[in-house]
Write a structure and sequence with these properties.
This protein is α+β, with helices and mostly antiparallel strands. The chain has one domain (4-128): Gcn5-related N-acetyltransferase (GNAT) (Aminopeptidase), CATH 3.40.630. Helix content is 35%, strand content 22%. Strands 1-2-3-4-5 form a five-stranded mixed sheet. A hairpin with a 4-residue loop joins strand 2 and strand 3 (58-67). Helix 1 (12-25) packs across helix 2. The longest helix is centred in the C-terminal third of the chain and has 15 residues, at 91-105. The radius of gyration is 15 Å and the shape is globular. The termini are far apart. The mean pLDDT is 93.
């Protein structure tokens, strides 16, 4: 596995196909133009950190948040995707490691993520990387638009 680095606007053409494939994995229609606009806006507004693996093998996107209880920033690992043909080659683990470095360097108290209940490959990756499933809190969501 090569290196992971923070992506910039100059990488947008490399990330869009990965981001679009990630959205399709979660049963969204392909929308490269929408993906491009969304990612450009995140980068231009400094609202997320995008990490890109060498050879466009995969990406991760982190969003800053805060913990009122801990009075500290936190990070949400919202998106993680590895091209299917490169899975089980260490790309996902490298992206997770780099994401943890970003969170640590930003002073975040913790990093969290959520994934589909049936995504057993991702579950195994997270456990191997030292993540623990939250047994204290239930997560709820509601559509607002």
């Amino acid at each position: 596995m090569g290196t992971i680095r923070r992506a910039t606007l100059q990488d947008i053409d490399r990330i869009v196909p990965l981001f679009d494939a990630y959205r399709q994995f979660y049963e969204q229609d392909s929308d490269p133009d929408g993906a491009r606009a969304f990612l450009i806006e995140r980068i231009e507004r400094a609202q997320s950190v995008l990490l890109l693996a060498d050879d466009d093998a995969g990406f991760a996107q982190l969003y800053p948040s805060f913990s009122s209880v801990r009075l500290r920033p936190t990070m949400i690992l919202n998106d993680l995707f590895v091209r299917p043909e490169l899975r089980s080659h260490g790309v996902g683990a490298a992206l997770l490691h780099a994401a943890c470095d970003v969170a640590r360097d930003s002073g975040a108290a913790r990093m969290s993520l959520a994934t589909a209940v049936d995504n057993s490959a991702a579950h195994a990756l997270y456990v191997r990387a030292g993540w623990t499933r939250d047994a204290q809190f239930h997560t709820y969501a509601i559509a607002t638009g």
